Amino acid sequence: MPTKPRTAVFFHAHPDDEALLTAGTMAMLAAEGHRVVLVVATAGERGLAEMDPGDELGETRLKELYTSAALLGCARVECLGYGDSGLSPKGGVAEERPDNAFIDADSDKAARELAEILKDESADLLAIYDPAGGYGHPDHVQVHRVGRRAAELAGTEIVLEATVNRDPLLKALKLAGKVYRFPPEFDPRTFESAYTAGDQITHRVNVRKYTKQKRASMEAHVSQASGGDSDRTLAVMLKIPGPLYRLVFGTEWFVRRDVPPGTRLTHPFEQV
């Protein structure tokens, strides 16, 4: 473990993504005295919510992002200002999207913008997504591409790909499907090729001590707990009782490509 404070930059596609995948790790690092920086590519202005998509929703979601970041102990928050690319109803790239959609951006230009933040912060670590973008959202895939290139440009030594161990996830979804009717926008079959198989994961970070902060981070994204004709995925997660929540969300997973697959590290800054 590092004996002096270091800097970790977490790069996400939209506000609320940090809450779902990396909030526990961010809170842990901040509590240990490290500098935690949160960067989002877009304001998430095309997300489902009670209000219509657009600038107003984007402003609301950025306010929620700042609230979440404060709860997690982040020292800095930045938005690169790209347009939310949206998601096709069937998954994949939406046909109608803004002119500045992140998915259509020059990935090298976006990487240079992120690299400037990494250099300014003298970042020791950059967290992005796995190549599949987790569950396959186009903006998440672009985060992976842009993040990898930015780390090269800035010379950031540690690059962690935030992911989920899909092996227990598939088992849990199968069991849950027997007693719970999933929201229409949530297709559990998509997880068969999403995220990362357990034998490829290099970091399993125990964040049970920080699940209160993680839950509070989720709760900060009020706009994303409603909208559509049924409970949103975030709303469903927030209904999970405390003890079970700590069990389900008490581990966060990462892949570091320059260490052997399956290496069992327990801290972002741990050396092989």
From TrEMBL:
The keyword Zinc applies. It holds the Pfam family PIG-L. This is LmbE family N-acetylglucosaminyl deacetylase. InterPro entries: GlcNAc_PI_deacetylase-related, LmbE-like_dom_sf. GO terms for biological process: glycoside metabolic process. GO terms for molecular function: hydrolase activity, acting on carbon-nitrogen (but not peptide) bonds, in linear amides. Gene3D superfamilies: LmbE-like (3.40.50.10320). Keywords: Zinc.
